[in-house]
Structures are given as structure tokens and as C-alpha cells.
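Re: that chain you flagged

S.,

Sorry for the slow reply, it's been a week of failed gels. I finally had a moment to sit down with the sequence you sent. For the record, here it is as I used it:
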Amino acid sequence: MAVNIFKNDTNSKFLPIVSALIVFLASISLAIVFLSSRALNSWKYTIESSLSIQVMPEYDAKNPESEKVARAQKLKEFLEKDVMVKSVKIISKNTMNELMKPWLHKDFKTKYAIFPEVLEVKTFKNLPKEDFETLENAISKQDKNTKVYRHEDWVKKAGLITRIFNNLAYIILGISLVAMFGVISYSTKTSMLIQIRIVRLLNIMGAKDNFIAKIFAMSTAKLCLIGGIFGTLIAFPVLFFIIYVAQNSNSSLFALLDLAPANWVVVGCLPFACFLIAAISSYRTVMKTLRKGPKI
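Prediction finished late last night. Pasting the C-alpha cells below so you have them in one place:
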């Protein structure tokens, strides 16, 4: 009976299409929340407790490249003696050239360029503002022509951007949920009008309101489940593509974007959430309509 009641109903085509679209949007939005949260945690783990120091070239020197390298080595030895510093590493020239390539013209000859010498510094813990300023002043006294960057500041900026994306994703999820309830309510009322003869016949036969409501609820839920599965099947390749592009980009930060197996499972369960929402919403709509009386 649950299958026949929607046999000549336009909702048999309308509901799967709309639910597929809603589940697709919800899948992408939920995945964005998971991706941004995991990426931010990875960035914190990778970047926190670290600094970057640029030893700027002195172009008026006889040999700016050799002079810069010597100053960087001297600064490295100085920092290795500091109690707050865990390790110091000088980024090689080849690595610097590769890092700079995306930002320079394709015909630019990086081997002839004199870039700042960069030191990657790891500290034993996240330095409070006072300790950071103390270390910064010590570095400045050792070599005035340097710039110190605290990676924690970059994480804070990334966290702000992440929260903005998360809020947008939550808004889309909320709109999707409201839209789902609205669509189910509207389509259920439409189906009841289309199937008015069957409803009246069931009333004459003595069927209770909750029995009729269950028929509509299960029929609606099945249609939404079918649409939801299609929506997820479309969303998964899109998510795989987004993650693939991010991980193969030149950005070391975007390369950390990934979804945990549990995240994929949660996104994959959205069609079943759609099934439950459709069943509950449709059941309540039918019961509310039948209780208004007189019977339709």
C-alpha cells in the first residue's frame, strides 16, 4: 500500500530530486566543517612553537650572498645556545628557490636571485608575549638586519578564516534542515490532496489516523532516502576532487586538508538522517492535518 499510494503522484519525482540536492549541499557543508577543523588542528601541531627568521641580504656588501650565509650561520650558532630554543635549521637555497617559484614570473632566473636566508626555529613551548619579545630583542642585537615571524600569529589568522568558513557551513546546514522540513510538509499535504480518495476509503474502513500517517511517512521517507543516496554519491567525488587538488597544491597548509575515516562515515550517513527527518516530518504533518477535522 505504501508503494501504490504514490504511484500517480508527482512527488515520486519531486522528492528524490529535492532531497538529493539538499543532501548534496549538506554533505559539502559538513565536510567543510570537518576539513577546516582537522586542518586547523594539523596547522597548530605543525606550526605552533615555531618561528621563522629572515636574515636580509646587505646588497651594498662586496659579496652579498656569502655575507648573508655567514651571518645566518652565526645567528644559528647563537640561537642553539638559547635555553628557549629546541632546534634551529637553515632553509637551503634550493628549497627557497622552489618555494618562491609560484610567486615569480616563469622566466625569472631564481639561481641568480639573492633571497633572504631563512632560519626555522623550534621552541620547547609556545612562547608568551614577554618571552617572545625577549628572544626577538636578543636576535636583533645579534643581527639588526633580521625579521622575526611568529607562526602562532599565522595560526590565529587561519583560525579566524576557518571559523568564518565553519559559520557559513553551519548556516547552509541550518537552511538545508529547514528546507527539508518545509519541502516534506508541503509535499505531504499535496500528496494527501492527490490521494484524497484513498484516505477517505481508509477512513470508511475504520483506519486510525496514525495508520494513515505511517503509510505516508514511510512512502515519503523511502523517496527521500533514494534521493539522499544519489546526493551523497554526487558529493563524494566532489569532495575527493577538492581534497586531491588541495593536497597536490603548492601550499603546505592546504596539503594538510584531509577527512578522517569517521568523517566519511558521518557524511555517508546523511541519507539515513534525511530518511528519519522525512518520516517524522511527514507523520506529524498527516496527523496534524487529520486532527483538524472534519476528515478530508
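What I noticed first: The radius of gyration is 31 Å.

Talk soon,
D.
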